């Protein structure tokens, strides 16, 4: 069964790095589970656990003895550990394996090929078969030309690799960086908006609109899937699902869906004004709730939303901090979890910094509310001081910031450093925070692919945190969005050398 065809398999990526797209794919005729949906109506192929349920990729292109990366992207949510064997199609020569654990939709995976293996794959094709996993694994095989990295492709290794920071904006500005609607896509959108704030060319603003246009139709109707790949059209799936509305409010404040997010917040608020995820209050809400609330408060001059945003930050300071310790989650029974997780600090600090930046530009608050904002600025300074003590000499942070043995985590590092840079921009933090952010930026250079994608990212905590402690790391466009936020804010700070779009 032919799933996708391309008349020309060579694709020029936005960062000017050429890749070779699969010319066509053949697989067994597996059906998408009834409760699930492939995003955007794109074509996907299932690789099943049964014999004969493999996927074969073919390329039309010159045979070259050139090392390359073979990449695929996930099309349906994965809730188990999966391994794919990769071999040549005609002679069955083993080439490598994909190690895929609890993957989210749009996550990229890659296997390094030697020059001889690249030539073999181009000559014979490549077969992907499931060697671990109980359910079919679905990968994208067809989609728009504007999203080449989300389709199977070969990325040749270059002996003269360009600066990956120069490739990052082009990669992020394409549809290759689209993520699941919610916190992951929100990180990308904020990266694009921050790049626009730094560059002011309109280029990245157009990319934000193109991204949002994938999820909203011409009538403003929202169409997307929740984190389990289940259709969630026309509704907000949870507190993490409101982050993209911050970007929507900035590029199209009159959009008919804006009121949907506001209604969700107001209907979900408890008597004390806090908005939780069921019975749990999480650090994510500083970024995914308080920040978009503050954006809308400024956009619509709504004092009630500004106060609600302040309340979210105050509640999280009270319930998630304990001296110099920060937790990701506070539970109804009084317990707390994910102690000193780097991405807990990421969401807490980035939410504080971004919300304060929006509220600082809000002109109609009473003095008492500005006093509350001043207290939150003090909390940003306190928490920033704590997290800077855990920064490694190289400039990054571990998965658990006080446990170096858990290994470096790049997305949390990027977000923490972006928050530090915004704090300097606000005048809340001093130059030492700016230099700490710059050290992070420089250290992240070694964790960017040649075409500008961040790797070294800890997997999402769908497996209750086990993967974070096992040293498992992924490529992540969500993480790329956070790196872009850091890069762009640093460009807006005076006196920091060598950073330009």
From TrEMBL:
Q: What protein name is recorded for this chain?
A: Glycoside hydrolase family 88 protein
Which species does this protein come from?
Paenibacillus gansuensis
Provide any one GO MF term from the record.
Answer: hydrolase activity
Provide this UniProt record's keywords sorted from A to Z. Answer: Hydrolase
Q: Which residues cross the membrane?
A: none
Instruction: Give the top-rank taxon of the lineage listed in the UniProt record for this protein.
Output: Bacteria
List the PANTHER family: UNSATURATED RHAMNOGALACTURONAN HYDROLASE (EUROFUNG) (PTHR33886)
Q: Which Gene3D superfamilies match?
A: 1.50.10.10
Q: Name one Pfam family in it.
A: Glyco_hydro_88
